[in-house]
Structure prediction request, 251 residues.
Amino acid sequence: MIQRVLLIAMTVLVLAGCGRKGPLVPPEAMVPAPITDLRTVQQGERFIVSWTQPGREEAGGPLKDLAGFRVFQREVLPPQEDCEECPTAYKLIRTVDLEYLQDVVRAGNAYSFVETGLDTGKTYQYKVIAFKSDGSESKPSNLARRKKVTPPLPPVVQATSSPTSVVLHWEAAALPKDGTLVGYQVYRKKAGTAAPELLTGKPLQEASFEDLHLERGVKYDYTVRTAAKVGGETVESEPSAAVTGQLTEPE
Prediction:
């Protein structure tokens, strides 16, 4: 009896010394939460692969010590040959180090890179895994799949400047034989800068655009891309030749 009382007392002391205030969190819950918005689009002959970094751990706590991402790609084969789970299905195409991004572009918590050298008519699938500085990894992201198709040609664009706006007009180019027009996307950047911004929220149906949101004394470069549905995929053309516009002085 005395031995039993002593055993219970020692157990209570050990538990009290542990300082536990709740259930233990398993190590697998402390990995980054999986990425859920991986996507890929085709512009011209290239794919642009993009995603947003997770902000939480798998268990819901704030994510700390995120170190980078591993991007995997596989070619999707005909149904009778395809094997998603085969160990050789995917190949590692990018290891993204957050301290040294190289050819990966970061905008806030969003990342993207350009994928080239893809074969027209083939379908490619991507997944991304986030990893922390201790090497722990997230579960794979959602799968992003796209077939590479023949893109449409860009339009021929002209710009007319006035004291209040810059107006763009363009002539449509021929579409691929199996393509249908979706519309046109207009991009603008300040002359001398690198990254253009998309001005049109959705593709325009008409072949003109008026830009009213301009700074006086600043030159702008404009390009337009044709968006078309080709082989079941929506694809944009290469950018048109750039045209320049700016607000003119009132007469």
